[in-house]
Structures are given as C-alpha cells and as structure tokens.
C-alpha cells in the first residue's frame, strides 16, 4: 500500500509497487495494467500522482502506451552479460528468439577518420567494408547496426552470404579463418532521431542504448568497428562484480 508518512513521494511508491508486480509476473507482458480509476481506488491516490508514476515507468521501459487503447506491460528486456563476446545472432538464439536482419547498405567505402583510428589502419587506407542493418528478434526491430570491416581488397562478403548466415562473425571464421577473440566495448545512452525511430518502430526521442565495439582477431588485429543502437525498452546489459 501507499504509505502517506513515507519520505518517498507517493508517485515513486507506486512506481516501485508496479515494478514488483511486473518482475513477479503478476502483471503479464502485453497485458493492460489497471486503469487510472482502478489505481486511484486501490491505492487512494490522485490521478496526477498516478500519471507521474506511469510516465516514469514508460521512460524506464516497463510499460508502453497505445493511443486509444490503454497502457500495457512491456515485453521483458533482453539481457546480455557485459563480459560475453557474442554476436547479435548468438544473443538472440541464447534467449530463444529467431535472429533476423534487414540489410540497408552494404559495400566498400573510404573509411571516415574515426574508423581509421578505431581499426588502427594506415592513414592511406582506401576502403573498408561497411554493412548497415536493422537487427531483428522474432521479426521485431531490436537495433540498428553499422559495421566497418578491415578486410583486404581480395577479401569480400557478399549479400547472399550475409543473408544466408546472418552473422558476420560466422562468415569471418568460416571463410577467412578470422576468429573473433577479444573486444573492447563502450556503452552510453542516447535518444532516437526521427529516422532511427522510424527504423526501430519507436517514438522519436525514445531512449536508446549505443554500443560501440572494436573486435580483435586471434592474431590481435583489429577486424571490426561496430556501432549498435539498441532499443532501450528491449535491451539491457548486466555485469557481475566480485571482490
């Protein structure tokens, strides 16, 4: 129940109550949460307080609103261990989802300065392979992925190969014996532009998780620099700390 004498604001007490119900499975994903009127009667709080709590839960990705229909529990976020070096396809399969992709752009380009620096390339490098894709889980957009690959002119990846395997890591290993061995990854929070929102089927300004990763092969050569914009309502990272 809401404690009127608690120092924690009433709206945040309601946030915590609804979070616990979602985490325990008392409120099931894609099902409607109680209406404002029901919450008002149940917890003896004002509509303003309820709307504050709902707004926070939407921003945090616990619930989502559909105009004219109501407010519903969001699907559970996909969890990725921050110490695991896995491809997107492996992440999806590990969580029981079918990975997919929509290839937006694929070909050789002159590398931007940032890519030259991240991949430790000679300044005179003329081309890298760029692959831009929408990554899917069970046909739902999960992220936008831009990959830059430091492969020689003799090494190539065809659209057919990528459509067949869905995994750059698998192609590198099977075709060129380049084994993904180590990576450095940074994470930060950003918000969706209009274009990104359209691709990910979210609202403009929705929270996104930006992952930037440099991948090294078994020979300690930088092979790939990749940027992935994950939907903030569908993805989270975890790390286990020990002492």
- CATH domain class of the largest domain: Alpha Beta
Strand order of the largest sheet: 4-5-6-9-8-7
CATH T-level fold name of the largest domain: Chorismate lyase
N-to-C series of helices and strands: HHHEEEHEHEEHHEHEEE
Task: Tell how many strands the DSSP assignment holds.
Answer: 10
The domain count comes to 2
**What percent of the residues sit in helical stretches (DSSP H or I)?**
25-40%
Query: Roughly what is the average pLDDT, rounded to an integer?
Result: 88
CATH architecture of the largest domain: 3-Layer(aba) Sandwich
Q: What percentage of amino acids are in beta strands?
A: 25-35%
Q: Label the overall shape.
A: elongated
